[in-house]
Amino acid sequence: MHYSLTLEGEELWLLAEKAIYWPARQCLLIADAHFGKASAYRSLGQPVPQGTTTDNLQRLDRLLSALPCAQVIFLGDFLHGPGSHASGTLSALRTWRERNHALNLTLIRGNHDKRAGDPPADLRIEVVAEPLLMGPFALQHEPDAHPSQHVLAGHVHPVYRLRGKGRQSLRLPCFQIGSKISLLPAFGAFTGGYSVEKSDDRRVFVIGDQDVWPVC
C-alpha cells in the first residue's frame, strides 16, 4: 500500500516498503539500504541474524514487480562498511543485478559508502556526489538544506513513537515531510532509528501493518 501526496508540484508515493516512488519519472528512491550490515557485524564477532541482505533484496524485487520502474536511486549508504564486501553479500547483490540487468541504478554517496568503498564495478551502479538535482528536488544523503531545491534525504533513519495508554508506546519507521527538507526511512531491515516529531511545518507518515498513514 502507499500514500500519495503532492510535493513541489510532483506526485510522490510514500510506500509501506519504506521507499518513495516518483510516477512521472518511473523512479524508485531508497535511503539507507545498508546491505551487508549484518555480515559486517559478524566479521567483528557479533552474533547477529543472517539473511538480512536477501530479505532486503526480496522486498526490492516485490516493488519492481509491482511498479513500472526505469531507475532506482539510492540516497546513500548502499553498503554498510568494509565488512560488507563479504562474498555472500556480494554474491547476492550480483545475482539480483543479473535479474535486473536493464535497470538503471544510481548511488548518491553517503557517509557509510565513503568507509565501505564504492560498490564493485560489475554491479553497474553509477556513483555520484550529493546533491543530485532532479526536477524540483535535491536528492541527497545528508538532510542539509539546498538553496533552491526541496531536499529528499536519508541518513537519519526516522522513526515516530506512537503513545498509548499509560506507558504503552510503539516506535514505527516513518517519513517526515518538511517545508524544505523531507526524510525517508531506512530501507534496510537491520538499521535502528532516530525518533522525530511532527510540527506545524513537518508532517509525519508512519508505516505499519503494510500501510502508510499520516499522524494527526
TrEMBL record:
EC number: 3.1.-.-
An example molecular function term from Gene Ontology annotations: endonuclease activity
SUPFAM superfamilies xrefs: Metallo-dependent phosphatases
Name of the coding gene: pdeM
Top EC group: hydrolase
Pfam families found in the cross-reference section: Metallophos
Origin: domain of life: Bacteria
Keywords for this protein: Endonuclease, Hydrolase, Ligase, Nuclease
Residue span, Calcineurin-like phosphoesterase domain: 28-115
Protein name (Swiss-Prot/TrEMBL): Ligase-associated DNA damage response endonuclease PdeM
Alphabetical list of InterPro entries matching this protein: Calcineurin-like_PHP, Metallo-depent_PP-like, PdeM-like, Pesterase_MJ0037-like
